[in-house]
Amino acid sequence: MKRLSEWKFTSKEFAQTPEKFLSGHRACAGCGPAIALRLVMKAARGPIIATNSTGCMEVVSTIYPYTAWKIPWIHTAFETAAANAAGIESALKILRKKGRIKDEQVDVVAFSGDGGTFDIGFQGLSGAVERGHDFLYVLYDNEAYMNTGIQRSGGTPHGAWTTTSPAGKVIPGKAEYKKPIADIMVAHYMPYVATASISHWKDLVVKARKGMEVNGPAFLHAFAPCPRGWRSETAKSVEIARLAVETCVFPLWEAEYGEYKLSSPSKVIALKPERKKPVEVYLKTQGRFRHLFKPENRHVLEDIQKEVDRRWQKLLKACEIA
Amino acid sequence: MAKVEQEIVPLNGDNAVAYAVKQCDVDVVAAYPITPQTIIVEKFSEYVADGEVDTEFVCVESEHTAMTCCITASATGARTFTATASAGLALMHEMLGVASGCRTPVVMSVVNRALSAPINIHCDHSDAMCERDIGWIQLYAENSQEAYDSIIQAFRIAENLDVMLPTMVGLDGFVLSHTLENVSILPDEAVKKFVGTRQVPMVMNHQGKLVPFKLDPANPLTIGPLDLQDYYFEHKRQQEESMRKALDVIKQVHDEYAKQSGRRYGNGLVEAYRLDDAEIATICIGSTAGTVKTVVDELRENGVKAGLLRMRAFRPLPVEDIVSNLSGKKAVAVMDRACSFGGNGGPLFHEIRHAVYDLPSRPKLVNYIYGLGGRDTPPYMIDGIYKELQKIAETGEIENKVQFIGLRE
Question: How large is the ipTM?
Answer without folding.
Answer: 0.97
